[in-house]
Amino acid sequence: MSDVPEVPPEAAAPVVTPTRVVIAVCLFAPFVALLWVSSYAKTDPTFIGIPFFYWYQMLWVLISTALTMTAYKLWQRDQRTRLGGNR
């Protein structure tokens, strides 16, 4: 007999899969877009009288929500498949 205990599947080492890469990109994209201030630090073009600087950031609130929701749904699906679909 071996003295090495078996590792349950939930405690196995993390695996990099294409789904997890997409999840990471979905969560990382808003940080890159909003921390790169020089790309949107301008007033033109305006949208209904609002300078670009402001409406660009507000647009990213909506985009970030959609990306976070997508990442969450992908994570749920990844966990269901990883744990054998017993959820």
UniProtKB/TrEMBL annotation:
It holds the Pfam family DUF3311. InterPro entries: DUF3311. This is DUF3311 domain-containing protein. It comes from Streptomyces prunicolor. Keywords: Membrane, Transmembrane, Transmembrane helix. The chain crosses the membrane at residues 21-41, 53-72.
